[in-house]
Amino acid sequence: MTEPRGDLHLHSTCSDGSTSPENLIRYAKAQGLSFAAVTDHNTMAGVARAAAMGKALGIQVIPGMELSCRDGQRADQKVHLLSYFLTPTPALENISRATLESRNRANWEAFRRLKQLYPVEEEMLTPFLAEGGILDKQNIMRLLMDMGYTDRVYSPLFDELFSAKGGSCFVPAEYPEVRQVLRLARESGGVCVVAHSMDFHNFPLVEELTAQGLLDGVEVRHPKHSEEDKALLLSYAREHGLAVTGGTDFHGSHRKHPDPVGACFTTGEELSALKRKKRGESWQNPLV
Prior knowledge:
Elements lengths: L4 E6 L10 H10 L4 E4 L8 H11 L2 E12 L5 E8 L5 H25 L22 H10 L9 H7 L15 H10 L3 E4 L8 H9 L5 E5 L5 H14 L2 E4 L19 E2 H11 L10
Helix pairs in contact: 1-2
C-alpha cells in the first residue's frame, strides 16, 4: 500500500492564487493525495470551503494560514510563517487584517502609477480581484494580459513594473515583526513552521527560534529549495526534533514555473508528527 501523502502549502483565490479553494481539493484528489492544507496569505477565508469539498471527496483538509512577516533583527528580511491547526484570536485576526490592508494600499498605489503608463481604469480590475476584494500584483497582470500587453503573469513586464529592485510601479507594503506574529499564532493554538527558509535566507532565524523553543517545524520540500537545501534542513530538523513539512506553494497560473499540486509533499508520518506538536508532545524522528 502506498504511503499517504499530502501538500501543506496551497494558495487559493482567497489570496493570491488563481484557483478556488474547492478546486484545490479537486486537484489534490486527482493527484492521489490523502490530505492538503489551504494556506492563504493572512486569511483563513477559504479553509471552510476547502474542508467541505474535502469531506465530499475523502481528502483530509488541514486548517492553515501563511503569515507575511519581516525579521526586524536582520535588515527586515521577508519571512513567511506557516501556521497549522490554529483558531485565530482577535489579536491575530487584527494583525492579519492590517497586513492585508497594507498590501492592498500598496498595490492600489502601484495601480495608480500604472495608469500613467497604460490606458487602464479601476473598473477594469473588477473581474480579476481576489475574492476578498484585495488587490494583488497578479490581478493587475491578469488585466494587462487580457488587454494584450503580455502573455503571462510572470513575464519580463512584471519585473519591469513591480520588481522590488527598481520596478517603475513598485510600492512596498508594511509587514509585522515575525516574533510578534509567531507569539500571536502560538497563542491561537497554531503549530508554526518557517516556509521556504532557504529561498528567503531565513536559516539564521530558524536557528534562533529553535534555540528559544519557539519553532515547531521547517518546510523542507519546496520548489525553490535545492537538493542541498533539503538535505541541510532535514538534517537540522532531525537533530533538533522539529517537524518536517513539504508543500508546492501552489498559486495555479500565478507562478513563474509550473508545479502541480503535490509536486512537493508531506508524508503521512510527517503529518502525524506535526499533529503531535499540536498536542504538545515531544517527537523523536524515527529516521534518526
